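Please review this one.

:::
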Amino acid sequence: MKVAVLPGDGIGPEIIAEALKVLRALDLPFEFREAPVGGAAYAATGEPLPPETLRTVKDAAAILFGAVGDPRYDALPRAKRPEQAILGLRKELGLFANLRPAQVYPELAGASALKAEVVTGLDMLIVRELTGDIYFGEPKGIRTTDGEREGFDTMRYRESEIRRIARVAFEAARNRKKSGGARVCSVDKANVLETSQLWREVLTQEGKNFPDVALSHMYVDNCAMQLVRNPKQFDVIVTGNLFGDILSDEASMLTGSIGMLPSASLDERGKGLYEPIHGSAPDIAGRGVANPLATILSAAMMLRYSLQQPAAAARIEAAVGKVLRAGLRTADIYAPGTRKAGTAEMGDAVVAAL
C-alpha cells in the first residue's frame, strides 16, 4: 500500500510523525514515500508543489498530508505561496469530494462552545463538493463600470458534478449504519439561486437510487442555525463548495477543538488526500505541544476510504477514545483533572492503546 507522505510546514512534520508511528504499529504492508510541499518545498525548489512531489502522489494509493502555510512567504506572488500546494493537488488529482466528520467524544463534550447536553453523542459527516461552485466558475474578476469598480464571480454547477457528489453522500450515509437509519440532508439556497434549484432537482433524482437512505432538504441559512440549535439531528449533510466551506468550519467548533478533526478529499475512484482540518500553526511549531489526534484520525479515514482496511481504521479510532478516557490531553483540550501531554507522548499513548 503506497502512501505519499507530505508533512509540509509549521507543525506538519510533528503531527505527521505521530500518525506514521501509529500506522507502523498496525503491522500492515505500507510503503511510505515522503515528499516536500508548501513553504518547505518552495524553500528547497522554488515551487510550493514541485513536479517530483506531484509524481510521488500520482503513484500512491493515498496521500497523508500535514499542513501548509508559512508567514515568511506571505509576500510572495499568489502562485508561489505555500497554500497553492493544496489547491494544486485538488486540481491535479481531481479531488472533488471533501468528507469532514464532526464527532464529539464524551470526555470532550465540556470543551464545546455549546452546552454539553446539546453536543454529547454528536456524530455527523459533512460532504462538501470541492472543485466547482463560485470558487471556480467563470467569468470572474474586477472591472470598471460607469466609473467605479465592481467585483463579480459566477456560481456554476453541471448536473454531472452534482450527481457524483450526491452519490458519495448517499453511499457514505449507507455505510455509516447509524441507529435510526441512514439519512442525508441536502443543503442549498433553492428559494433564491438557480444553481441551487438544479442542485435540489438532481439530489432528489439521485436519491431514488438509494431507497434505504432518507433524503431531506434544508436552506443553508436554516442549516447554520440548526447546527447551533440541534446539531444531533444530522447524520450526513451534502452541500456545494461555498456553503460547505462555511458549514464545515461551523461544525468543527461543536467538537471543542479543531485539533480533533480529520478530513478526506476523494477522487472518483476513492483515492484520497487525508489531512487534519487545522492549519500549520507556526506559533507553536517545534515546541512539541501540537495535538496529533486529528492527523491520526485522518490516517484512520485513509485506511477506511482508500486502503480498504476498515478494521484497522476502527482500531485506531477506538485507541484514540481509550486515550481520552484515560485523561490524557494536549494543551488545546486540557481541562482541570486531566493530565497534560505533548505531541509525541500523545502519539505514544495511542500506540500503547492499540
In short: The radius of gyration is 20 Å.
